[in-house]
Specification:
six-stranded antiparallel beta sheet, globular, 0% helix, mainly beta, 37% strand, single chain
């Protein structure tokens, strides 16, 4: 349907179809149950200025869909559509997920990127996920995504700014900068390969509400996974692990050590240009969210013990890293 005004009588059916696809994100099978398109918009081009009025002056668009096969998680189609006529078709060139919290790794550990994910069991992993995403429009084309987070508790997700990479090959996402207002004054700590010691920095950072920005270097030749452990109590053998596996190009959150019903969930992160790999992590009690390289996001959850508050870095010798951390205040609203 289209309309040139808000008057009901002006609505008319657009001839033909605008978008036609029922492929799943795996590309090898189809969605056979339902297709729920929830948003169609023009995101800004990536810029330090979120209010650049020229950032939406292009023909590229994003379509968000909540397919049944991912049970609430939101998939993303990137494509183009002429601004000259709404009768044109939306031609997509990339297909991914906004949040990979529904997806597990393959049991045999084989594959790379999306092919390393378990295509037969993407639905409803225990422990938490984000879905039913919507976007809110801001000034000059700013787009903020938010959704429901399900797990051991239900909440609204942290907002994420969405933008196209400058080459328009990827949809980028980052936690909204307004989140920085929750950082507790004087709580900043930096951990790096020179000051953490052999225990990975256990004891330097503690908390159940944290923001962590980890940057890893010299990881290209790594043969093992590397990353962060949060909500950790080493004596109890309890922690939530956020890791990247260079071999199968998956970033994962594994909270199985915090709750026996939890399941590891992973997302594809294919790094085109080797260099710094960044993990931006928010820890909020029972929820853990990571956005890696401003591209791949995962939401997970667990049931940590009250004593599980430590943070540690792990990886093989020679890995370079710098982790900035802040304790966070609760986002309480006075009514």
């Amino acid at each position: 349907l289209r309309s040139t005004s808000t008057t009901l009588a002006d609505w008319e059916l657009v001839p033909g179809y605008t978008f036609l696809s029922n492929k799943t994100v795996f590309g090898t099978d189809t969605e056979g149950h339902e297709y729920v398109t929830i948003d169609f918009f023009t995101p800004p081009l990536s810029s330090d200025d979120l209010t650049d009025p020229h950032s939406i002056d292009h023909d590229f668009k994003v379509l968000l869909n909540n397919p049944y096969y991912a049970r609430g998680s939101t998939e993303v189609y990137l494509g183009s559509m002429s601004r000259e006529s709404f009768d044109g078709k939306f031609e997509y060139f990339a297909h991914s997920m906004l949040d990979w919290g529904e997806f597990r790794p393959r049991d045999d550990g084989r594959g790379s990127g999306i092919s390393a994910l378990n295509a037969t069991k993407p639905n409803l992993p225990d422990g938490g996920r984000m879905g039913m995403t919507r976007t809110a429009a801001g000034e000059n084309g700013r787009r903020v995504a938010y959704g429901a987070v399900w797990g051991h508790y239900t909440a609204t997700s942290i907002g994420r700014d969405l933008s196209f990479s400058r080459d328009v090959r990827q949809l980028l996402q980052q936690f909204v900068p307004e989140m920085k207002s929750l950082r507790k004054e004087g709580s900043h700590v930096n951990m790096n390969e020179k000051n953490v010691g052999e225990h990975g920095g256990v004891g330097k950072v503690k908390g159940r509400q944290l923001e962590l920005v980890a940057r890893f270097s010299h990881w290209e030749d790594a043969k093992e996974t590397f990353g962060l452990k949060v909500l950790m109590d080493k004596e109890l053998g309890e922690w939530c692990e956020i890791s990247y596996n260079p071999k199968n190009e998956l970033i994962c959150i594994d909270a199985t050590r915090e709750n026996e019903i939890n399941e590891t969930r992973c997302g594809s992160l294919v790094v085109r240009e080797k260099g710094i790999l960044q993990m931006h992590v928010i820890v909020d009690g029972t929820f853990v969210v990571v956005i890696a390289n401003n591209v791949t996001a995962i939401t997970s959850g667990g049931v940590p013990s009250e004593s599980s508050v430590d943070v540690a870095v792990f990886g093989e010798r020679g890995l370079g890293f710098s982790v900035d951390s802040w304790e966070l205040d609760s986002a309480e609203i006075d009514i």
